[in-house]
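Exercise 7b. Backbone tokens:
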């Protein structure tokens, strides 16, 4: 099973604490991969999904 977890933290020190104090304590986690956003291009929280009317 794969989960995508979006975490927003103040800085890399907070991220490091989160990973080592929280995630590493969860049973069953055998692999972690991290990606970091360095710059925000566009902030959108909604999707424009067309309605067909049926």
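Sequence design result:
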């Amino acid at each position: 099973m794969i989960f995508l977890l979006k975490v927003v933290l103040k800085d890399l020190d907070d991220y490091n604490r989160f990973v080592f104090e929280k995630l590493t304590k969860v049973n069953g986690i055998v692999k972690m991969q991290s990606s970091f956003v360095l710059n925000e291009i566009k902030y959108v929280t909604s999707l424009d999904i067309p309605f067909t009317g049926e």
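Instructor comment: The chain has a mean pLDDT of 88. The CA atoms of residues 1 and 30 lie 11 Å apart.
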